[in-house]
Structures are given as C-alpha cells and as structure tokens.
Specification:
The chain has 6 helices and 5 strands; from the N terminus they run E-E-H-E-E-E-H-H-H-H-H. The protein is an alpha+beta fold and about 150 residues long. Helix 3 crosses helix 6. The longest helix has 14 residues. The structure holds FE2/S2 (inorganic) cluster (FES) (2 copies).
Length: about 150
C-alpha cells in the first residue's frame, strides 16, 4: 500500500493505492468518486475518459498515476463548472441538446475545453479535427459541433 498526493479540481487530496501504475481514471472514479470521466475502451481510442492535466486533455485510462506529480492540476468535468455556474461548453451542450446516451459527452466537453483554450475562434473544420479521435456511437456529432461553436461564440 502507498499514499499518493494529487491536486484535483482545485483540492489537494491523498489516496491509498496498491499499484502506482494504476490508471488515473481508476483513482478519479473509484477513490475520489468523480464519475464524470468514463471508462470506454481503456485503450486511448475513444476519448470518454478525458480529463485535463495542467490544461492539456489527456486520456486518463492510459495515464499511470505514477506519471502525475503532486503539484500538477488535474481537472475533471466536475471541476469545469457548477450547476449554478456551468462552463460555456456545458451550457452550450444543454442548449443544443447535444447528448443522446451521454457516454461520450465527458470526453467531447473536456477535449473541446482544452481546444477552445488555445483556439478561441475555431472554424467548423478545426472543431471537427479537434474532436476527430473522440468517438460517439449515437451519431450526435452535428449537434456536438454546433455546441462547441456556440460555446466559442459565447
Ligand atoms: S476509455 Fe480512455 S480513451 Fe477510451
Ligand atoms: S451521445 Fe451516446 S455515445 Fe455520444
């Protein structure tokens, strides 16, 4: 057993782990009960587990805990906004009703948030390119792209 210090959604936390190579996703969901990031493929192929580490979108299913330093800022969907003050992307996804089953939406929002932070006025083609590796089995892509555009214009 070992202790691992993390900074998640602005709070310093400490978790007890058996395996330092455990995926960050398991620590977030199982140790910290943050259910925004989803387990999809477990192979870095679908994007449903995406979180931010120091502002960059990373696939937490293949990010070993050992690679995260205590001072790095991990942000999950829960840390992006609140019910009272949702992030512009969260608001836009609701306004565009860009969700069917919802499984991919954590990844779509987290990937888009990191993308919009560096490209505030993207074209539709750039949005599609940014989300090209995030899979949605429900075929909600057109609404998702509209939601990202709406958030960019907000
Ligand atoms: S669950 Fe991580 S990319 Fe699919
Ligand atoms: S809304 Fe169902 S997988 Fe995207």
């Amino acid at each position: 057993m070992a202790t691992k210090a993390l900074k998640v959604n602005g709070k310093r936390v400490s978790i007890t782990i058996d395996d330092p190579e455990m995926p960050l996703l398991y620590a977030l969901r199982d140790n910290l009960a943050l259910k925004g990031p989803r387990f999809g493929c477990g192979l870095a192929q679908c994007g449903s587990c995406t979180v931010h580490v120091d502002g960059k979108a990373v696939r937490s299913c293949v990010t070993p805990l050992s690679s995260i330093r205590a001072g790095q800022k991990v942000v999950t969907l829960e840390g992006l906004g609140t019910r009272q003050r949702p992030h512009p992307l969260q608001k836009a996804f609701i306004e565009e009703q860009a969700v069917q089953c919802g499984y991919c939406i954590n990844g779509m929002i987290m990937e888009s948030a990191a993308f919009l932070a560096s490209n505030k006025n993207p074209t539709e083609a750039q949005i599609k390119q940014a989300l090209a590796n995030n899979l949605c089995r429900c075929g909600t892509h057109a609404r998702i792209v509209r939601a990202v555009k709406r958030a960019a214009n907000a």
